[in-house]
Design brief:
Layout (H helix, E strand, L loop, with lengths): L1 E5 L3 H10 L6 E6 L11 E2 L2 H5 L6 E4 L7 H10 L3 E4 L2 H6 L1 H11 L3 E2 L10 H9 L4 E7 L2 H12 L4 H10 L8 H4 L2 H15 L18 H8 L3 E12 L2 E12 L11 E8 L3 E8 L3 H16 L21 E2 L1 E4 L5 H6 E5 L2 E4 L2 E2 H14 L4 E5 L1
Parallel strand pairs: 1-2, 1-4, 2-3, 4-5, 5-6, 9-17
Antiparallel strand pairs: 7-8, 7-10, 8-9, 10-11, 12-16, 13-15, 13-17, 14-15
């Protein structure tokens, strides 16, 4: 395989290192913004040098961001080249367009590293799907949010303090919104659900609530009642569609999810016949992420085109069948919340079973009246 590598940052350098000394995988050209030491003879600043090179059969995109990554991926597919990407943002945002284009041109489109970094999640989801019907996918899909929640359970610490520590350690960005509000998880859930269910979900349609407003008082209330709080994603078959959402969730303190430490992920699928299988590990890191990129390249060499189905269809979100109790803390309870309140937990209340989409819609509006409002589903 002859590779045109788009980007030479942390993951791109890892990809290049994995190919060194291999006869079956070689990097012929690297698209860079500026010259990098050690790759001067194969560097280029023009995507056309890669697209017009007939020897290059596969483009590996590790630039990140939406643009120009999307345009470059489309151009590579239209040039008849296979594509491997670690870019969850572009795959989640343009999944229908990219998969349709890859089908049209008969090329591979693989993105194992886009969900879970170095965890072999999507390839095992693919294995499950070819034998069994996938019932649900989800779990802990973001290392930053899990690091924060794990630390808040380990010792009394405020959310702003532990967020600052996560930033100092490099786990959280200067703007942590994508991690703590759920956007990063939502992108990964869209990709996973679309692959699992042959669907064409759009990320902007999936409701979510993040952990930005959780307090150490909330955590104490949960722990005293035998619960741990994790930011979880969930997508499952529903009548005439898929039920998908992201929310803080209270799980039994002895549950598998409760034991996931620091910045680790735990992603799970449930098959109709093989039940639940979970995949654990760090969702980032140079060499693990680059290794999954390389595994996709090797899969292409073996003739596996991609995760996409030959006929995915637009899929409605349907949360009508999903309901469970919620913990709610707000300084401005309204008539709707009072009507659904079943118990009081310290500074918060617990509802009876409430429709998930209804609660997430209420919570989004409630933040306008009470920016410190926090909710968590109870399993």
């Amino acid at each position: 395989m002859h590779i045109g590598l788009l980007g030479f940052g942390v993951v791109g350098a890892g990809v290049y290192d994995w190919t060194r000394g291999r006869a079956d995988l070689t990097v012929d050209r690297v698209l860079v913004r500026s010259s990098k030491p050690g790759i001067e003879t194969i560097s280029t600043r023009s995507i056309e040098d890669i697209l017009n090179d007939p020897a290059i059969d596969t483009v590996v995109e590790v630039m990140g961001g939406l643009h120009p990554a999307y345009e470059y991926i489309c151009a590579a597919i239209e040039a008849g080249k296979h594509v491997v990407t670690a870019n969850k943002a572009v795959v989640a945002a343009y999944y229908p367009q990219l998969t349709a284009l890859a089908r049209q041109h008969g090329v591979a489109l693989r993105c194992t590293a886009a969900v879970g970094g170095g965890i072999p999640w999507l390839v095992n989801l693919e294995r499950c799907k070819r034998l069994d019907r996938v019932v649900s996918v989800g779990g802990i899909m973001n290392g930053t949010s899990n690091f924060i929640m794990d630390a808040m359970h380990a010792s009394p610490v405020s959310f702003p303090d532990i967020l600052k520590k996560a930033q100092d350690l490099g786990y959280a960005e200067a703007d942590p919104s994508a991690d703590i509000d759920g956007d990063d998880i939502r992108r990964k859930l869209v990709i996973s659900a679309n692959i699992a269910f042959d669907a064409l979900l759009r990320e902007e349609d999936i409701p979510m609530f993040g952990i930005r407003t959780v307090t150490d008082g909330d955590i104490k209330a949960f722990q005293s009642r035998g619960f741990a709080c994790k930011l979880l994603a969930e997508a499952a078959h529903a009548e005439n569609g898929v039920c998908a959402y992201i929310e803080p969730t209270l799980v039994d303190a002895k549950a598998l999810e409760a034991a996931v430490p620091a910045n680790f992920n735990l992603i799970t699928y449930e098959g109709e016949n093989i039940d639940r299988q979970s995949f654990y590990g760090q969702g980032a890191g140079q060499m693990p992420t680059a290794a999954n990129v390389m595994q996709d390249c090797l899969s292409i060499l073996e003739g596996r085109l991609g995760f996409y189905a030959q006929q995915a269809v637009p899929t409605a979100l349907n949360g009508s069948g999903e309901a469970h109790p919620y913990y709610v803390r707000t300084s401005a309870p309204d008539a709707w919340l009072k009507e659904h309140t079943a118990d009081v937990w310290d500074n918060g209340v617990v509802t009876g079973a409430v429709n998930t989409y209804e609660m997430l819609s209420w919570a989004k509006k409630q933040l306008a009246a009470d920016p410190a409002c926090f909710i968590a589903g109870i399993r």
